[in-house]
Design goal:
The protein is mainly beta and 551 residues long. It has four helices and 39 strands. It has a five-stranded mixed β-sheet, with no helix packed on it. A five-stranded mixed β-sheet has the order 10-16-15-12-13, with no helix packed on it. The chain has a five-stranded mixed β-sheet with strand order 18-24-23-20-21, with no helix packed on it. A hairpin with a 2-residue loop joins strand 27 and strand 28. Helix 2 packs across helix 4. The chain is elongated and about 160 Å long. The termini are far apart. The N terminus is likely disordered.
Length: 551
Amino acid sequence: MVLKYRKRKMSGVSRILFFISALLPIMLSIVLMAPSGVSATSITLNPDSGKMGAKVTITGDGFIGKMATIYWDDKKLVQNVPISKAGEINHKFDVPSSTKGIHVVKVTDDSNWSNITATSNFSVRPSLICEPPWGKINTRIYIFGYGFAPNEGEIKFTWDGTPLSKVPIQADKTGSWSSQFDVPNLPKGEYILSAVSPSTGPGEVPDLLFTISPFCKSTPASGPVGTKVTITGVGFRPGEDGLTFTWDGPILDTNVVAQPNGTFSFVITVPPSVKGRHILGVYGSSFTPIGIVPDLEFEVTPSIALTPSTVIGSRELRVDGNGFNGNEIIAIKYDKAATDATATTDALGNFTLTMKVPSKPGKTHTVEAAGNKGGLAQASYVSGSIPPPSLQLLAPGPGAIFYNYSSVVDAIAGLFRSPGSLLGIGPAPQSGGDASLATLGWSAKSDATGMKYSLQIAKSADFASTALQKDDITTTTFNLQRSMLPNTGTYYWRVRAINDVGDVGQWSNYWQFESRAASPLVIAIAITIIALIIAMIIFGIIALVSRSRYS
């Protein structure tokens, strides 16, 4: 029997199930390849609070696209922000006009993955802007407020703490408002504008500086003669020329031109003047004559400048003083010690003197100038002392031999005082007949003015334990006495230089020498002579005994 199979067509439902089963593995793999929702995508705002218009730096990482978009409360703020290959962003933006409080900054990239999103909060604070920020009396000024609460009402702006607005102001839905006022009839100078309301307390709005012009400021307000003082001015005629600066009346500089907006910035140098308060005046052309701009004050303080001599080895130091009282007697201290150096200032508080400074250790020295009328100034300088030179050993040469007893007479005397020292089995004599063993000499490879030297002698070449240490040697030779060494044997010696400020040079190379009791010939002659003397004494005694026996 033959079986026949009929080919059956797939129904619609079967086809759908077939396609779903085929696409399921692909979709699963895509999901597994997609970035995880717990990825390190994040952003940071710096600062994270501020007023409208503040500059904010946003940094972030964990992005996978090429371009990012920055949102402010879900509204696009910046587009096409580049993303680095490492998935990082770094961008600056200005805080838009917004209401007071917390706002959400969000960043997404162009990868189209919904989980590549990061957010951070920014807190907006209220602020004020004046246009212009200065003006003459009765000038109409416009004031703008930003960052207040939506529709915030009963806002009043204040002038040095006193309410200036006649009618309370209400902000719009974005927390912004505007108003105007006429500059009060007050002295020229700087004043503080602020704003308050039932929901915005005192101090919550940063102070805004307003200047009744024309007005000038200077910085710094004190310093010595020669100080650079920057003077800034506002409220002058646009492009006004002939701006002039005076010091206690006389003109310092002139023909300065204001900017098109009526401002200027100019630097003057404090001229020679006595200690105390001085008047700095500013005036312009016929639009701003003398007496319109309030005077500025500057406090002159005493100062001294130190100039060491450039001559090697010289001890001369020049002291120039400025800003002291006129005809003031000045006394000088060097490293807190009084000196004989004195001077008297001229009518403008200046003096100059040259002194011979004492030799003291250390590189940095302080000089103080004190006047009998209250002037006082200090300054320090680094001494130009000669660096310690490298040293070269000269004599005696390496391998030299020194004898404690160089003559027969010394050897005979030494034999009676210390027989062991003559035979090299005891210490050198410590008293009596202490003669020179040798003269050690060296030379400097450069200028050695004002140098002192240290000498070391040791039993080993590593100088781990010294047999002799001599410091503060003022010449390039040293007379080595035989009593200075503990006993005979092989020794090593070296030297180094120390300059007048205590800088220590490197040790020289070392040389070897040998200390011996005496030469064999001297010892033999001395012993022979002593033996002959003893023999003669014995022979004399025997002769005397014999003569007395037979007499």
